[in-house]
Amino acid sequence: MTQMVNLVPLIEKKKVGRSLTDAEIQAWIDAVVAETVPDYQTAALLMAIRLNGMDFDETLALTNAMADSGDRLSFQGYPVLADKHSTGGIGDKVTLILAPIMAAVGLPVTMLSGRGLGFSGGTIDKFESLEGVSCNQGPGAMQAMLDRFGWANAQATERIAPADRILYALRDVTGTVDSIPLITASILSKKLAGGAGCLCMDVKCGTAAFMQDMESARELAGNLKTIGDMGGMNVRGVITRMEEPLGHAVGNYLELLEARDYLKTCPDRPLMELVFALGEVMLAQGGLTNDPGDARARMRKTIDDGSAMDRLERYLVFCGAQPQAMSRLQADSLDKLPRRAVTAERSGMVHAVKGRDIGYLMVDLGAGRKVRSDAIDPLAGLVLARHVNDRVERGQVIAWLYGEKGLREDPEVDRRIRACFEIGEARDALRQPVVLHAF
Ligand code: URA
């Protein structure tokens, strides 16, 4: 008979800021995976951790307990396997562009990715926005992906990092995402279980990130590096700016389309700059090249010769996309899908686009979940028609809305979109680099 763990003393302890022991953390995670503890008690403990934090030893114990909550993957025939992860941003479709590029350059990549989390989107929801695609892939399928096109991507399952699968979905809808220990354990448990030796982290920092200032971003980066390295991974990465959405599109299918466009045209925009910056780190970690110029030339070549796009298409087909869905992906474009315009009510210069508020609005419009059982509208989302430092005249379009709810006339939605745009007198906002710090 299954032993029930009493979580109340742990909640009481954390409520007053005391540390949990390794054994208590292990017992909690075992109970989460065995489903012998009710969600409401785990949610209460998550909130107590969110409010009172965890010290380094607790974070380490939580990471290890979560990483060992299922099987650890290992793949035959790959001495070097790379992985990349973002701590979560708005319009962050970097993985959809970067992973196929890395595979095409010749660096094998394996990843366990997540779904939407709080106001931020997730890679798995983006891939699965294409009809037929399922990222619920087991170890055998991941090995086959690596062997066929050099890139395996899947979600946490009942067998691989199951504790994160459960806690992640609960954190998404309980306001417990923005916690350094919980983010550290969530990410590293997947990464340690995922079988790659190198991890390149993109730690987002800013008003549209879970880490809103440099101090907390550095603390999270430090945790990820120290605990990841202790677990035998080579962790490096960058802290990057996250204020206005990355690229034009926010929303699952819209971001997949935008990623496809980036793989076709390689536009000279901050999103591509971020892709290249992360790619440089990955290629150095993987021992392919330490020369940033060479790294960029190799990445660029995979876009020009179509090999990166080929990897993306083969991945989607492997995960279940039928020929009809693939033809739609090739034929659709952001300006041809049904959409509704929201216009500016004043003229001026765009000083800021508030990514976090856009993220919350997108959840309300069906691009993310408010409760665990919510279904996603794959088409829900928005495309920005204006970015920071663009000039806009009264009556001109600032954003396009998509998806069932977005297409409905709704003055409150329009008001919220307009409130995301700070439009002021003509002046250039301070342009900050995308990459703020490398570690
Ligand atoms: N990505 C994850 O996998 N987990 C988090 O908690 C945040 C970002």
Provide an overview of this structure.
It is a single chain. The protein is an alpha/beta fold. The chain has 2 domains: 82-161 and 182-325, 3-Layer(aba) Sandwich (Pyrimidine Nucleoside Phosphorylase, Chain A, domain 2), CATH 3.40.1030; 340-424, Alpha-Beta Complex (Aldehyde Oxidoreductase, domain 3). It is built from 18 helices and 13 strands. The protein has helices spanning 8-15, 22-34, 39-52, 56-67, 94-105, 123-127, 139-149, 162-172, 180-194, 214-230, 252-265, 270-285, 292-304, 307-318, 323-331, 355-364, 403-407, 411-420; strands at residues 82-86, 109-113, 151-155, 198-205, 234-241, 249-250, 340-343, 348-353, 381-384, 391-392, 397-402, 421-424, 435-438. The strands form 4 sheets. Strands 1-4-5-13 form a 4-stranded mixed sheet, with helices on both faces. A 4-stranded antiparallel sheet has the order 6-9-11-7, with helices on both faces. A 3-stranded antiparallel sheet has the order 10-8-12. β4, α10 (214-230) and β5 form a beta-alpha-beta unit. α5 runs parallel beside α11. The model has no long low-confidence stretch (mean pLDDT 96).
